[in-house]
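User: Show me an example of a complex going from sequences to structure tokens.

Assistant: Sure. Here are the input components:
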Amino acid sequence: MLREIKNGVFLFYLLASSVLILLPLAHILFSVSANGLPVLMSRGMEFLTSTLPGPNKPGGGIFPAIFGTFTMVFLSSLIGIPLAILAGVFIAEYPKSIISNLARPLMLIMLEFPTILVGLFVMVVVVIPMGTFSAIAGAIALAIIMLPYVTTYTEQAMRTVPESYKEGAYALGLKKARVVFAITMRLARKGILTGMLIGMAKVAGETAPLIFTAGIAWRSIGGINEPTGAIPLWIYYLVQQPYANYHEMAWGAAFILMLIFLAVFLPVRLMMVRS
Amino acid sequence: MDRFKILLLPSVSLAFGILLLMLITFFLNSWPIFEREGLAIYTSNIWRASEIPEEEFYGILAAIYGTVYTSLIAILIATPISIGLAVFVVDIAPRKIRELIVISTDIMAGLPTILYGIWGIFVLAPILSNFMVFLHDSFPFIPLFSYRNPTGYSFLTAGILLAIMVTPFATALIREAYAAIPPIYREGAHSLALTRYEATKLLLGYIKPAILAGILLAFGRAVGETVAVSLVIGNSFNIHPSLFAPGYTISSLIANQFGNAFAYSYMPHALFAAGLALFFIGLAVNLAGVLVLRRWRYA
């Protein structure tokens, strides 16, 4: 009898854990939609194409933030992805070398590393010498954060390619570089692409590393050597303002950010389930 | 060594180089504060900014306290939930529900942290503040509830928000390990006619190291999280036992103070020293997690 009661309590605990974890997610997605969608609906395209209004003024939009996010994600991909893929290739192709054995835990540590410290670091080595916050400084910080994601996915994808394919290529007399780029990477392209997209989705939502690198821009867009806004940065600053219209804009921006994240993440994740 | 390996080498070395360069940068930039205050930067709770350099003094003990406090709250909540969730997904949930839960937790793990932040400041904190006022008024003599006039911005709010954010990471690790237990153990447990509870208790015993690793990595994440925490913790230098008191964490201190730090002579150095502490706490916890995981996988 006691055993059965214990078992019943245990089953309840299992069910409760699942509900307890899904509840906040549902509530977050619901809150962001319920508060953000009306803002978007009432302002229409203006919300995407115009800039920050004054405090307690009607209208306005988040264009500089959207522009900044796309610019920095693009630049950081340009810097980070090639390096990360090459690093992933190294670890996959020379799995037993000392460097690879050290690099694997290093990637895990970089994945977990406090991102605010990356921002502080880039501020010292890029922002201070340049004398200004800039999109390129923000992008460098994001590239460092993206690195471990893309490296890990590339390595894992390349290791799923069967040895026999590579042996076949070697038997034809191909050089190692040819085998890697023409055979292994082509066969592993889906996994590598997944890593790239996950890395990009991840950095698009980063806030902390941008605070001291990208600076902020509210009413203008500039070159890559000038301060820039980003959607997460805008939300971070707007919620700390005392004005109701800024809070509305923050919710609207949060809704856009959520859509961008889900639009990249969900298809990638569902593709992974199928394969 | 072949040429291909040498060509690839710089890209891998870069990751090591960045970590090393970061460490050097933080050391060099925090040096002046160590020279001036010694370890008092970590052991005192004073934050005196002044235009006159002689009068400046900085101690970040409150932020270290807040970091440990909030992260502990987070893993105290996250651990039982992530174990329960892992067992539910592997043993009980039908396939459709299992996929739904796994994808949902993956979304939670990747969701931009600022979305947790805006939800925390506008939704969670107001809800919690009602509970806090009620608990304080009913049991003011319990130290955990002892903070007067709770506003909702507190250690507890930050801890709960962090728990929500780190549970997906802990549960993914535990789930993976739990699912990888050889079927023969499961069959053995069932052939002894054990109840679900008894069998699970036995099986969880086999993956203790994975559970520990999950908790450590979750703790490491909680320690490093910045923006969501800085929006709900109240940002004040406070070493108070109450869950309802506002405070600081190291990362929220940096996010909050660095913007105006350059107006003072020593404040930037104090904040780099704070960063250095965060660097080592994060590194130690994550390294411990990675090592536990590695030893267990090889065993």
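The lines above are the inputs; the final block is the predicted structure for all two components together. Chain B touches chain A through 86 residues (CB under 8 Å).
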